[in-house]
């Protein structure tokens, strides 16, 4: 058993409750255990661990990675072929996925859809915004 404090509340009372409760709810995909069904459902949503999801029957012929949907396999296969069929209309840079072009277009505009509620600074990408949000004191 790992020596981890992840998910344990700082209050001794809450930590004791977590450890003393029986874990009645178990994820059938990864066998994680939960004290109540709502926590199990949150886990399943975050991790995509639903036993009724389609099996990964679409397999890459190069690396054997498998996917639930053929469209995901098609996207993946472009990594091996280096095919980049999607082109930026501004600079002609090419991408493997159409969604990447959409994100890239923000570099040509002043669009900054992610705004810090504390300091009002804007960000083009959610990843940069999340990093800033953790550090921003306002």
Radius of gyration: 22 Å
Provide the CATH topology of the largest domain: Double Stranded RNA Binding Domain
C-alpha end-to-end distance: 41 Å
Query: What are the segments in which pLDDT stays under 50 over at least 5 consecutive residues?
Result: 1-21
Fraction in beta strands: 5-15%
- DSSP E strands, number: 8
Q: Which bin fits the share of residues in helices? A: 25-40%
Number of helices: 5
Structural class by secondary-structure content: alpha+beta
What sort of overall outline do the alpha carbons produce when their principal axes are compared? flat
CATH architecture of the largest domain: 2-Layer Sandwich
Biggest β-sheet: strands ordered side by side in the sheet: 1-2
Describe the protein's architecture and organization.
- By secondary structure, the chain is α+β, with helices and mostly antiparallel strands.
- The chain has three domains: 14-47, no CATH class; 54-83, Double Stranded RNA Binding Domain; 84-138, 2-Layer Sandwich (Double Stranded RNA Binding Domain).
- It has five helices and eight strands, in the order H-E-E-H-E-E-H-E-E-H-E-E-H.
- The chain has helices spanning 12-20, 37-47, 70-81, 98-105, 126-135; strands at residues 25-26, 33-34, 58-59, 66-67, 86-87, 94-95, 114-115, 122-123.
- The strands form four sheets. It has a two-stranded antiparallel sheet with strand order 1-2. A two-stranded antiparallel sheet has the order 3-4. The protein has a two-stranded antiparallel sheet with strand order 5-6.
- The protein is flat.
């Amino acid at each position: 058993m790992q020596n981890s404090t992840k998910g344990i509340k700082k209050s001794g009372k809450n930590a004791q409750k977590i450890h003393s409760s029986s874990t009645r709810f178990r994820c059938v995909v990864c066998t994680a255990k939960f004290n109540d069904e709502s926590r199990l459902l949150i886990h399943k949503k975050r991790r995509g661990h639903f036993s009724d999801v389609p099996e990964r029957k679409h397999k890459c012929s190069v690396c054997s990675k498998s996917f639930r949907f053929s469209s995901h396999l098609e996207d993946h296969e472009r990594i091996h072929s280096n095919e980049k069929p999607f082109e930026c209309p501004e600079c002609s840079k090419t991408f493997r996925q159409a969604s990447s072009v959409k994100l890239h277009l923000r570099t040509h505009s002043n669009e900054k859809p992610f705004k810090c509620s504390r300091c009002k600074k804007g960000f083009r990408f959610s990843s940069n915004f999340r990093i800033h949000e953790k550090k921003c004191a306002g």
